[in-house]
Amino acid sequence: MNRSKSAAPEPGIADRMRMHLLVLPFLVALSLVFYARALDNGFWHAEDFKMLETAQRLLADPSQLLRLDAIQRHHPVPLALFLLEYRLFGLEPLSYYLVNLLLHGINAWLVYWLVTALLTDRRIAILSGILFAFGVGSYGKAVMFVAGSENLLITLLYLLLLNLYIRNDLYGRGKLLSGRYLMVLLLFLLVSFAKPTAFSLVGGLLAYKVFFRGERGSTRRIFEPHLLILIGVALVFWLIRSLSGVSEFDWSIAGENPWDFSVNFVKNMMNYIIHMFFPIHVSRLVTMGNPVVQFVYSIAPLIRFVIGLSIVSYSIFGFFFGNRTLRFFLAWTFISVLPYCVVRFPEDWLNIRYLYQVSIGFVFIMASGTVLSMDLLHRRRWRRLLPYSVPLAFVVLSYYVTDRLDRKYESEANRPVPRLRLDSLRDAARERAESRFETRVETAAGQGNAG
Predict the structure, then answer these.
(1) Per-residue pLDDT tens for 317-362?
(2) Residues 119, 100: Cα–Cα separation, whole Å
(3) N or C, which end of the chain is more exposed by having fewer CB within 10 Å?
(4) pLDDT 10s digits, 406-419
(5) For 63-71, which contacts have Cβ atoms below 8 Å and span 24 or more sequence positions?
(6) CA dihedral 292, 295, 301, 304 (to 10 degrees)
């Protein structure tokens, strides 16, 4: 990676941006094709119905957007998206899923764009974007239920902020009075509604400043004003939210004493990381799967143990001998999963849904290892393609898991409870429409009498 230590202006920025944007429709198309099977799904997740019910309430009174609690946590940005979707699409799930796939495709492009900011090899950047589009490491959970757009939208803001901050730091020497930094401040304020995301973002920026100090300029400090401002904004923002009594995510510490907390912390971290490699755990998808899946599950403890050892050894090796980009993404992967290791959430504990942001570092590590291994075998005509078998295997795994999840979710949507809740939403929408119609008739009649 050859970045100027004088942090000269980014050369040919308009031409480079046009070239990068050509990759966007390709990654969006990949996302649409790969997850097309989800487009015929209905509303099935409990959070789907909570968000729809909240959207109905907001439609009647939009002023509640900044104070309404929908799903045990208050984040007005996803709520605003749901309100907009509900106004446009009503209770037709197809359009909601299309929005999810569009957001996912844009996120895949933002992953690609982020790697191009840190690394000159576009092959690694493109492969990282492709693997993310295929759900490698996250396996589509956030994409395949309507309320998953919360994860998708927050990740979009997160990646856009990170891209703008790093480019402003590398090419603009961290100027405070710049368009990029003003956008960073706005995006950070929006992201700060989600504490885990804001925490991992600040941690990721610190890791970037540590590992890319040479590219940033040897005389520049880690804690510069533009980073301290972000930290200060987050602390003040959280203090105001706490004093105003806004609902926060319900959580409890992952241990009743320091020893239990330490054991659970390490255990949770390893479980989350291992889930990206081996997303098989106790569920009906496994117990009712084909004989091959059941056999793999029977030896799952051994597989997890081997994967865990491999992760630890690779991480140690990567931190000591890897290049700075690899060390940054290794650190970022562990930092991103930290918020989910120190607390216990009430639902979806150890669910692959929370791996959506964490998988960003995972796909980069896989992509860089694949491309660099191929370069080592460049004199071997066919064997140089062998490293691509690893990401291909994970794409196949992602396809299998996604297919099984899709079948499960289709059956969940047809169960009595989701159907009853959908009927209730339709009845409420019909009543509101009739009430508005009667109000208009009465208003028109009153104006006619007055005339």
Answers:
(1) 888 888 888 888 888 888 888 877 776 644 444 456 778 988 998 9
(2) 29
(3) C
(4) 988 988 888 999 99
(5) 67/246, 69/246, 69/247, 71/47, 71/147
(6) -20
User: Is 372 part of any domain?
Assistant: yes
Q: What sign has the CA pseudo-torsion 208, 212, 215, 220?
A: positive
In a domain, 196, yes or no: yes
Kindly write down the DSSP assignment for every residue of 426-441, as one continuous string.
HHHHHHHHHHHHHHHH
pLDDT digits (tens, 9 = 90+) for 427-447: 888 888 777 767 777 776 666
Cβ neighbours of residue 40 closer than 8 Å, sequence gap 6 or more: 94, 410
**Residue 253 resides in a domain:** yes
Q: Which amino acid is residue 99, in one-letter code?
A: V
- 3-state class percentages of the chain: helix first, strand second, coil last, to nearest 5: 75, 0, 25
3 state SS of 243:
helix
Q: Whose structure tokens read 């660099």?
A: 372
- Residue 299 in any domain: the answer is yes
Its domain, for residue 264, covers 13-414
Number of domains in the chain: 1
Confidence category of residue 30, pLDDT binned at 50, 70, 90: very high
Q: Which residues contact residue 374 at a Cβ distance below 8 angstroms, ignoring those fewer than 6 apart? A: 384, 385, 387, 388
**Which residue reads 């949770």 in tokens?**
268
Query: β-strand 252-253 against 343-344: which pairing, if any?
Result: antiparallel
Q: How far is CA 257 from CA 190, 254, 263, 265, in A?
A: 34, 9, 10, 12
Task: Report pTM.
Answer: 0.86
From CA 165, how far away is CA 347, in angstroms rounded?
33
